[in-house]
Amino acid sequence: MTAPELVTRMLPPLAGWLAVGALTLPDGSPARVAAVVVFLTAGPGAALVRIWWPASAAGPAEGPADTWDTRFGRRSDLLERLMLVPLVSVAVVTVTATALLAAHAFSGRRVLLLLTLLTMLAAYCPRTRPS
Questions:
Q1: What torsion do the CA atoms of 29, 33, 36, 42 make, to the nearest 10 degrees?
Q2: Which residue from 35, 23, 40 is spatially nearest to 95, judged by alpha carbons?
Q3: Which of 52, 129, 118, 128 is nearest to 85 (CA)?
Q4: Confidence band of 28 (pLDDT split at 50, 70, 90)
Q5: How many of the other CB atoms lie within 10 Å of CB of 108?
Q6: Of 104, 107, 31, whose CA–CA distance to 115 is shortest?
Q7: CB atoms within 10 A of CB 11
Q8: pLDDT band at 9, cuts 50/70/90?
Q9: Does residue 114 register a pLDDT over 80?
């Protein structure tokens, strides 16, 4: 594993722990809100998409009928990944909050801590291989 790959892999859990640490700031603080919002919209999704992206991107993207855009495949994969990260994050946040509500254990700190631990676990998982 190279150093840039390790940094990319550990960035979502680091953002999660930064958001947990930001909870010590006063309520309504812009730094606290920014840290939590950035993590909740990108952290869990980035860690989870990193795990299964190689297996889902096994086939090349089909470009338009015209061949004027030769970089379509690379850019479409990047766009697909950029769209999946926040959508997967929002889905994971929703499922986590719903599960804690059903267990009568909901609090913002618990959701944030649980998602940080999930993100950390996902960062340590190996990537899937294309079949």
A1: -150
A2: 40
A3: 52
A4: confident
A5: 11
A6: 107
A7: 16
A8: confident
A9: yes
Token pair 């079949």: residue: 131
Amino acid at position 111, single letter: V
Q: What is the dihedral of CA 43, 46, 50, 52, to 10 degrees?
A: 100
* Sign for the pseudo-dihedral over CA of 75, 78, 84, 90: negative
Is the separation of the CB atoms in 10 and 123 below 8 Å? Answer: yes
Query: What CA–CA distance (Å, rounded) separates 88 from 51?
Result: 12
| Percentage above 70 pLDDT, the chain | 81
Amino acid type, 4: P
In contact, 55 and 129? CB cutoff 8 Å: yes
Q: d(Cα 90, Cα 59) in Å, to the nearest integer?
A: 26
Asked if residue 53 lies in contact with residue 9, where contact means CB atoms within 8 angstroms, the answer is no
Closest CA to 84 of 60, 50, 113: 50
Amino acid found at 49: V
Beta-carbon count within 10 A of 89 CB: 24
